[in-house]
């Protein structure tokens, strides 16, 4: 039997939780079983699960079929193995241009190019760059990103006297995406009525 204090505390927690916007996505440090235990509090694992709009009408209003499914069914975002990035430079709005490939973003659950939309996706890439050989060097040391290791290349041609350093060809895209830390993402669908 619950006492008045615990009933009051539960009501306060429920009222506080309902202040969150429907569709709020948060990182969660627990495993998938622990995330599933949060369903009774209105939180669901962002694993692409198929839901019925009649069971989650407020979440459907936010997501619609952005992440897949055909109405009256819809899918939760599938955020396994990815990190989140804020939308930038939407049509008609001032942005920061920090997402230079935003026009090439694809659908959340498709390869169709949809541009810079909420829950759109990008594949991994590395920013275009060149490597210069040090002037007068016969050997080139290249650091292996993120490992602390380096590799020595002996086959670069030594620049002749008066020539500029030799450079490699440009490789990659417009940006380098960061190393990330694994969490489970959960989305708020609202407390059951």
TrEMBL record:
Domain Phage tail collar, residue spans: 23-83
InterPro entries: Phage_tail_collar_dom, Phage_tail_collar_dom_sf
Source taxon at top rank: Bacteria
Segments passing through the bilayer: none
Name recorded for this polypeptide: Tail fiber protein
């Amino acid at each position: 039997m619950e006492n008045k204090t615990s009933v009051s505390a539960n009501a306060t927690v429920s009222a506080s939780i309902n202040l969150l916007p429907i569709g709020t996505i948060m990182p969660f440090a627990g495993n998938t079983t622990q995330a599933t235990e949060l369903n009774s509090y209105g939180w669901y694992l962002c694993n692409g699960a198929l839901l019925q709009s009649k069971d989650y009408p407020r979440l459907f209003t936010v997501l619609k079929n952005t992440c897949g499914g055909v109405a009256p069914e819809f899918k939760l975002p599938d955020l396994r193995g990815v990190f989140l990035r804020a939308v930038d430079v939407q049509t008609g709005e001032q942005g920061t241009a920090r997402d230079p490939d935003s026009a090439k973003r694809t659908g959340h659950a498709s390869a169709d190019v949809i541009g810079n939309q909420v829950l759109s996706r990008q594949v991994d890439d590395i920013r275009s760059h060149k490597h210069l050989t040090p002037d007068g060097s016969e050997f080139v040391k290249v650091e292996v990103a993120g490992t602390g290791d380096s590799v020595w290349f002996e086959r670069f041609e030594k620049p002749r006297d008066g020539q500029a350093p030799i450079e490699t060809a440009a490789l990659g895209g417009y940006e380098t995406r960061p190393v990330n830390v694994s969490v489970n993402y959960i989305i708020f669908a609202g407390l059951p009525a």
